[in-house]
Amino acid sequence: MSGAVPVLTIDGPSGSGKGTIARRVAERLGWHLLDSGALYRLVALAARNSDLESTDEAAHARCAAGLDVRFSSTPAGDEQIWLKGQDVTAAIRTERAGDDASRVAVMPSVRAALLERQRAFAQPPGLVADGRDMGTVIFPDAEVKIFLTASPEERARRRHKQLKDKGLDVSLAALSREIAERDRRDSSRAVAPLVPASDALILDSTVMPIDDVVDQVLAVVRQRVG
Ligand code: C5P
């Protein structure tokens, strides 16, 4: 629960821009940031490193409960993520890591194992929480809830550009298929599916520049939290 610490949740599908927007809004407000997707990516990577059977939910839940992770930043301000003391910042950002993450994310006991770890990010002066179930399950009492969407074509195009900028050559058609499959898995799972909270403000970023979305989110936070 958000308790006395103000929480802004930003949920939405892959490529909706929520990661970038959450980071910028957190910077502007001076609030902490929870990138919950990174936790699912880390569980999937830790499970892969330990050669866990993909159907062994109990082993995945133990892996999630014992996740040895540290978040830091480079002197230039770029994020760094450490799993058992190893820098996995790049390794968890691949398409395969995202796909693996969405497979472990359907496991209810993995989600349960990550619940308190996520709530513990709510520290003064405030938290911006980015994910799929931030407003529905993890922080149902959040002061402000945003659900960010964009058309599937635009989301695939953005992801394609991101990967190209990192020097990775992936076909746009293949990416579109992967995004559609991940959307389907995230939206149809039994526990914490990707749906807007009933009290979420729905923003469509398809044609809105990122700076405008950031300004709009900041305006809502300032109006509600002061
Ligand atoms: O946001 P990101 O692409 O890093 O998330 C990777 C995957 O982790 C998502 O496709 C989703 O299956 C899962 N996830 C989740 N709940 C969250 C955040 C991410 O199920 N709160």
What does this molecule look like?
With 226 residues, this protein is an alpha/beta fold. It has one domain (7-224): 3-Layer(aba) Sandwich (Rossmann fold). Helix content is 48%, strand content 16%. The protein has 9 helices and 8 strands. The chain has helices at 18-29, 36-49, 57-65, 95-104, 108-119, 134-138, 152-165, 172-188, 210-225; strands at 7-11, 32-35, 69-73, 79-83, 86-87, 127-131, 144-149, 201-204. The strands form 2 sheets. It has a 5-stranded parallel β-sheet. A 3-stranded antiparallel β-sheet has the order 3-4-5, with no helix packed on it. Helix 2 (36-49) packs across helix 4. It is globular, with a radius of gyration of 17 Å. The model has no long low-confidence stretch (mean pLDDT 94). The structure holds cytidine-5'-monophosphate. Cytidine-5'-monophosphate binds at residues 14, 36-37, 40-41, 98, 101-102, 105, 131-133, 182, 186.
